[in-house]
Specification:
The chain has 71 residues and is α+β, with helices and mostly antiparallel strands. The longest helix has 14 residues. The chain is 34% helix and 28% strand. A hairpin with a 3-residue loop joins strand 1 and strand 2.
Length: 71
């Protein structure tokens, strides 16, 4: 993991087309802004993990067999 220090209003650039900017710092909360191309999905990690889990469950062979039984 790369750890960087940024102040309010400062940014980092990822892969030439994603910019992450520190918008505000209040106590232990940091507000960030993300500028990315429309074809680059941006998710909160907890939501991303739910999507991955849901996709894995959908790809489960047992679930596919159960689905076929319904048809």
């Amino acid at each position: 993991m790369l750890a960087l220090t940024r102040k309010k209003g400062e940014s980092i650039v990822i892969n030439n087309d994603v910019e992450v900017t520190v918008l505000d710092v209040r106590g232990d909360q940091i507000k960030i802004g993300i500028t990315a191309p429309k074809d680059v999905p941006v998710y909160r990690k907890e939501l991303y993990l739910q999507i991955v889990k849901s996709n894995e469950e959908a790809m489960n062979p047992d679930a596919m067999a159960d689905l076929k039984k319904l048809m």
